[in-house]
Amino acid sequence: MIGRLFRQNSSSSLNLDTSQQLPIQQQLQQSGQNSYEDGYTREILYGVNDKSILKPFELNNKFFRIVVSQDGGNLRTKQVLFDSSMNETKSNKINNNTKSNLSRNILTSKIHHNINELHDYMFGCGLPTIEHQSVTKIHILPIVNNQTYGSYKSILITRLFSLTDSQDSNDQPISDWVLKPTLPINETKINTNSKNISSRFGIGLVIPLPDDESDIISNNWNVICHYLIVLQKIVGKKLINILSENVQEGTNQNNYIINRRIQFPSYTLSGDNDLFNQLIKLIKLTNYNSNIPKLINSNSLIKTSSQIPKFHPILINWVVEVLNWLEFKELNQSSKFLSSLFALIIPLRFQLSENPIHYDYDSTSNSKDIVRIVIMTGNPMVAKKLAFIINGLIPDSKVFNLLSDDNLSLDMNELDIDTDIDDDDDNLSTHSRLDAEIDLALDDENNDAISEDYNYKPPVINSKPIPIKGRSSFSSLDNSFSNPSFKGWDIGKSTTSTSINSTSKNLPITKSSLSKSSSMAYLSSSLNSSLSSSTSNYSLTKLGGSFIDKWKNSFNSSMNTNYDNIDYLPPNKSNNVNRKLSVQTLRTPSPAIEIEEFNLPKTQSMVDLNNNLKKSIKIDDDLISRTKNSVYKDGTFISNDNKIKNKISTIMNQEYFNIEDDELSIDIEPINQLPNELCNYENLLPNVAFTDEFRSEFILQSCPINPRLEQQVINSMKNDLLFYQNNCKINNISSRTIFISLRAREIKLIEMKSGETISPTNIDSPSPIQSYFSDFKRNGSYKTSIKKVYTPTKNHGDRELINIIDKNLNQMNDLFYQNLKETNNEYNNEFYEKLSRLVFKLIN
Amino acid sequence: MANFTVCLGHFCEVHGPCSIISTQISKTKNILKTKASNLQTCQSCQLSLPNDVNNIVTKSKNEFFISSQYPSNQDLYRSLTKLIMKILSVETSDISKPLFLGDNANGFTLTRIFKIKDLNARGGERKYCLMIVSDEEHKIMKNWRVSSNYLNEIIDFLQSKVNKNDNSSKGNNNDNYLRRSLVKPKSLIELCGDKQIFIKLHLSAIELIKDIK
Ligand SMILES: [Zn+2]
Asked: How far A703 CA lies from chain B's nearest CA (Å)?
C-alpha cells in the first residue's frame, strides 16, 4: 500500500497533472509497483531509470556449501574435516567413533559436487607443497544436474593455509614488486615442543553463482576476503584446540602429530555449530551483497551534473528533497533536525567515503577510522528520502573522477573562492521572509561575471564550502557531551551569534493556507502516514524482491534464532540503558510528532514546485549505466565486451606491422585504427537505501525498527577493532556510527576506540569474538561511548556549524520561492547557478 | 601504481613449466639485455623474434610496453615462475573458464589454461596458460570481467589459427600414427602458421594492460 501510494505521489510530481485528477482508489488500482520500483526513486537513488537494477538474483541456499579438509601429505589423500552438506545429527557428534563411518545422505550427494572433485580443485593434483602462505583460489565449477532442483552453476572459493610452528621467512622483496592482498592476515601459529610441524588445510566455499555474474564476486571481494579471514581464524583456532587436547599425558607426544605432520581424524569438525553458522553467514553475505543495489554516488553526480555531458537533474532533485524534508518533516521551525544531522555528517564526510572493509597500503599513519550511518525507521519512504539526502553529502573521489569531464575536471579546491558566507548574514536578516523581495545574498558582481558565457552549459561554479573545522570541531563536539558546561556550544565571534538569532526568526516558511484536496502529495502522504504506523510494512520483500523471505524460510527455526549475532555472545547486559530506551520508544510513541509521519504540508507551493520542477528535468538514460555494484561512463559493460572482441580481432588479423629494430629489441608502433577505448567504470561505495538487517559492510543503510539494532551495531564496531588490530597490525582504530532513530527523533553518536590513548574511566567491554582470535593481543581496553547528539528537546551538536548550515538551507529555500514567483519556476541558468553555489557549500 | 604483467606460460615437454612471452609496462626502456644464460630453451618454449632480438618495445605516450621471454625484474621473475609452475603442473581447472589464483607470496593472477592440438606433442596437444598478473589483488578482482574477456578472445584466436593451419586431418591414420611417434618441439609460430604471432600477442597484451591499469 505504501508503495503504491508513494509511487503515485512521486509519479504525480514527475508526470504532472493527469494523475492528479484521479481519485485515490483509481490510482491505487492503476499502479501495481511499490515505492522501491518507481522511476523517480531509481533515478535519485541509483542514478538511472534502469529497472534491471532491482531485479533480484535467485540464489538457492541448498547449493551453498562449506568444506574444510586437510592435506594428508600423500598425492591425492585429503581428509574431510567438515562438510556442511553432510546430514549429521547431534548424536553422531557425541560419538567420535562413528564419525568416519558417516554415510552421505543420498539426496544431498546428488545436489552437490563430489568431494574428491572439490579436493582436486582446492589442493590441486600435483605433489604436496611445502609452502606456508595463505593461497586464495576461485574456480568456476562444472554444472551440477539435479532432477529435483534443476541444474545450477557455481563457483568454488578456496582458502589454503598452514598450521605450522615455523616462523615466517618475511622475505618481502625490496623492489617495486610488492604484494598487496586485499586484506592482510596474521597467520595463526602453533606452539609445539617438537619442531617444524606443518600441515596444510583447505577451506572451500561453494557459492551458486553463474560465472557470467562474476561481477558479484569481484565487486564484493573485500567483503568475501574479510569473511574468509574470519573463517580461517575460527577453523584454525578450533583445530589448535583439538590438537592441544590430545597431548598424551606425561609425555610430549601428541596423538595427532605423526611424522611432523598434523593428522586429524576425518570429520573432526563435523557437526560443529559455529561452522554451520558460518554457512548461514555466507548465504546472507552473498544475498545481501548481490541483491541490494548500491546507491549511485549522488555527491559526485551533483558536482558534475552540469558536465556529464548533458545536464543531470539530480542537483535539482536533491534540493527538492531537502526542502521537502524541511517543510514536512521538521517538528517546528526551530527543531533543526536536518541541519543538526548535516553538521554531524559533514565533518566526517571523508571518513564516510572510506570502505569499512579496506586496508590502505599507502597510509603512513598507524590508524584506521571507520564511520557508518544507520537510519532506523519503520517507514521505507522516509528512509529512502533521508538516504538520498545523506548520500548527497558523501564524496567519492574515484566516482567523481570517473564522471567528471577530463578537460573540465574540477579540482575541488578551485571551488573554494569568493562569496563569503558571513557577508550574507546582514542581507538575510534584514529582509522578512514574507516579503516578496528576498535578497538572495549572492554577490551581484559575481553573478554578472558568470552569466556572460552561460548559454551552452553552466560554468564552473565558484562557491565557498561551509567552513568545516574538520576533526578539531569533532573533538569539541566530544567535549560538549562529556562536559555539562557545553564547551562545544561556545559560539565565539559576534558575527555568527547575530546570524543565529536572525535565522531562527526568519525561517522560510510561507504561511499560506492549503487547499487539501488540491494536493496529491498531501493526500497520499497522510494516508501513507496512517499506514506506516504499522512497522511490519518495512521489509525488503516489499521493497525489492522476495528473495530474503524465500531464503529465510528455507532454514529451520532453530537456525533462525542465531541470525542476528552469529559472531557474538549474547549482548552484554550491564550496558543496556540505551537499549531499554529504544524498546520503550518502540512501544509508547513519544508525545512529540513522530518524524516518520508526514506533517501537514505547510504550503501548497512546495507541491507546485515539485510539479514544475520535474516538467523541465528529465533524465537522459545515456549519461551513465550501471550494475548493482558499479557505474560505467559513456557505455555499458556489454559495449566493453564488444570493443575487446574488435580490438583483438583487429590485432590478430593485421598483416603488416611497422617494425624498427636494433641489436636488442624491435620497436613496434601501437596500432592506430583500434576501436575506442573501453568505457571506464568504478565500484560504488557500499551505501544502500534499505536492508532488512544491519550489515557491517555497508557505510550508509536504513534498517527496520528493531530493539536489538543498536547492540548489533555496537558488536560489529567491536569486530572492526579486533579485525584491524589483529590482522593489519593497526593500533589506533576508531569506529563510529551515526545512529538515527527517526521514530524517536534522535541522533546518537556511538564511538569505540582502541589504542594507547585510552582513559580507564570509560566503559570497558571485552569483545565477545575475542576468543576466536587465538593470537589476540590485548593492546588495551576499548572505550565505548554513546552520545545523544540530537533529541526533540536537546541539541548537543556543533551549534555554530548547525546555524551556518541552517542558513544555507534557508537560502536554498528562498531561492526556490523567488524563482517560483518571478519566472513561474523555469530553470534559467542564473537560477541554476545560484542554486548550485548554495548546494556546493554543503556538499563540497 | 599497480604492476601488471601479461604472460603466456607453457608446459614444455622438455623443460617443464616456463614463460614464453611476458609483457610489462615501464616508465623507462628497461629491456632484457641478454638471454638468461642458465635458461635452456627449445622451439616449444622460446620466444622467437625477428633478427634474434630479445625484446619487443612499444612506446605509448610516456610509457614503454616491453615484451620479453622473462621480465627483467628478478622478484617478478621469481613470482612468475612459481605461478606458472602452479598453474600448469598443480592446478585442476575447467579449461574453458578463467581461474583466479591469489598467492600471498607470489602474486595474484587471473588465468586461463588452454590446449593446442599438435600431433607432434605427447597426447596430441600442448598445454599453455595466458595470465594477467599483478602485485595488487584488488586490481585483479576489480577487472575480472575485462581481463577474462581479453583472455578468452586471445585464446580463441590462437586456437582458431592453429585449427586453420592444421593439415594433419588430411593424412590417413597411418600417417597420423607416424607423426605422433615423432615427438618434437614446435614453436607457436609454426603451430599458428603466423610469423608475427608474438608481435600480435605483444600488442594484445598492451591493450589489456591499458584497459585495466
Ligand atoms: Zn622447452
From this structure: 29
